[in-house]
Amino acid sequence: MTDPNAASRRPVQAVVLAGGQGSRLRPYTDDRPKPMVEIPGTGTPIIGHQLAWLAEEGVTDVVVSCGHLAEVLQKWLETADLPLSVTTVVETEPLGRGGGLKYAAAHLPHPDRAWYATNGDIWTRFSLRDMADFHTERDAVATLALARPRLPWGAVQTDGFGHITDFIEAPPSTFEINAGVYVFSPGFAAMLPERGDHERTTFPRLARERRLAGFPIPQGSYWRAIDTAKDLTEAARELAAQGR
Questions:
Q1: In principle, which of 53, 116, 129, 138 could form an S-S bond with 213, CB 3.0–4.6 Å?
Q2: Which residues contact 77 (CB under 8 A, 6 or more apart)?
Q3: Which tens digits make up the pLDDT trace of 45-63?
Q4: How would you classify residue 162: left for phi > 0, otherwise alpha for psi between -120 and 50, otherwise beta?
Q5: 121: how many CB neighbours lie within 10 A of its CB?
Q6: 159: buried, middle or exposed (CB in 10 Å: 19+, 13-18, 0-12)?
Q7: Which positions fall inside the Nucleotidyl transferase domain (predicted)?
Q8: How far is CA 20 from the centre of its chain?
Q9: How would you classify the pairing of strands 61-66 and 85-90?
């Protein structure tokens, strides 16, 4: 049965982590932060796509955590026609991923409500509303979107006698990975470290307590992390093939 109160519990606020150096994306990141890089053919930087997606999913307020070349991103956000309200914060000293997330979360407009978060280098489309409902149904403190990326290498299939039976180019991984998109309950921010990496502290503790959930991105939904120039090329080809 559909929960009639589910919509009222879905997040309307989000944090976008956009402070990374993007060193593996050089020279694209020599004059702009990683989320400002544009996948060829899309007509918008990665963060522009993310903000449009968040707005479509019911988000009204976003806090963007800036770092590398923060002024470039801030200028774009100030001049772009955005579908939601955006606030930027800049770390005055390196806080680590967990500390940076905690610092940004402190600027969310509704501290008593759940929130989304996403890494600033992710290009994806799936239902955040479904993910939020999944999070609520499992009474989780934190929920991670899970992706099954394609391996960058070819693979072989063999039979029981060791004969190769097939070659598979870039097969999907047999493992799911953290896709860099999250739903967090209101109390999660207090569990984050002031400095350091929450994926080595907060997440493992919540997993031991069975309060960390994993939401598989639906089959057929697009997901890619943009880490290298090769990722840009492949994302452009994949999105063009999908007519996006």
A1: 138
A2: 64, 86, 88
A3: 888 889 999 999 999 999 9
A4: left
A5: 23
A6: exposed
A7: 14-240
A8: 13
A9: parallel
